[in-house]
Amino acid sequence: MLGMLSFIIVFGVLVTVHEFGHLYFAKRAGIMCPEFAIGMGPKLFSYKKDETLYTIRLLPVGGYVMMAGSGMEQNPVTAGMTVSIKKNEQNEVTHIILDDQHQFRQIEQLEAVDSDFEDQLFIKGIDQYTNEEVTYPIADEAYFVREGDLIQIAPRDRQFKNKKPWPKFLTLFAGPLFNFLLALVLFIGYFYATGTPTDKAVIGDILQDSPADKAGLVTKDRVVSIDGNSISKWEDMTSYFNSNDIKTHHIIIERDGRELKKEIKPVKATLQDGSKQVKRAVIGVNPLFTHDNLLDPLIYGVKTTFKTGLMIFSLVGALFTSIFTGTFSFDMLNGPVGIYKNTEKIASLGILPLVYFTASLSVNLGIMNLLPIPALDGGRILFVLYEAIFRRPVNKKAEIAIISLGAVFLFFVMIMVTWNDIQRYFF
Q1: CB under 8 Å, gap of 24 or more: what pairs does 152-158 form?
Q2: TM spans, by residue (predicted)?
Q3: Catalytic residue among 19, 254, 259, 399, which?
Q4: Top-level CATH class of 197-290?
């Protein structure tokens, strides 16, 4: 139960922040956003404020902001369909009624022949009373009426595709940007809670049954020297062990004002260094975390966000390289199932490790969404850059086809990763 609750919270926070970034900048640009959704699939909860319907959906596999003119909308009126319309004094359609749950008066019925609710903004049909073919323009403020809800039809100037490249870019980039900002806030909060690692050679946490534990080191021991070499900084100690063979070292530590002699023999451990795994000599200790400086958590939060981003970026680069070198494996990826299992494991360690994990996931989500893959933010940003450089948008049909192919590709990858996760964790 703890793992499931933690996963729902972590997923909800990451996706909500990401999609809110898109929503915030879209609204600032004057783009109409009919829906803001967390999750996919059937609707579990909905709330409408102004022109936007806020929904929570069943499947925890993402979310979206539906923007007018972004290619996500579907025309609800098809040829041969009978609809009711209400017009204003200028003979413009103000309401297209798609059901019988309404109380409108003075309406007309049409058998739809053709319609366009994005570019030309019209509806053509056979008037059911006169049996004549008529064409009506759509008013600047017009709505679809379905199940008692009013869904506004976006005027041309409020559609994503009709905005200039700069607001388009900001709207698309805002999702990943907000993920980076969330990670920064979480990392800063984490370090304010735990303190920041000191650069002095003072022992913090000690791993059980590690060389340091067996040698009798305890938290707050200060390493004075190793094999007669003076040690003043944490890096001095780690560098010394890494640059020497695995052997027994004689160290002097200071504890409660007294100097003690100890013997310690490091072990080789495989550590992740960016996209590479390296073997290093370790003794099983972490630096001491302190609250000495009020600004240190801010500085360390920025550094950790940047460092995490570089590490994930290098791992993504290694992932794509592996595709061409033939070393790719779906074990290199984690889907919702894998993220759930990792969240469950981290949540059992406490709230602070979960905060750190969430911050790392947020950086990962931001970077992955910036990949130049159609259907992701990065792929759509490429279309915007093309428009900015060549002063014309990409052909609409070509753009829709490319994005659709990207969506199919991502769906296939998600299925394969999820199946691989299920086999890895449950069989």
Answers
A1: 152/32, 152/34, 152/51, 153/96, 153/117, 153/121, 154/32, 154/34, 154/68, 154/69, 154/118, 155/121, 156/118, 156/119, 156/121, 157/30, 158/30, 158/31, 158/32, 158/68, 158/69
A2: 6-25, 169-192, 310-334, 346-365, 400-419
A3: 19
A4: mainly beta
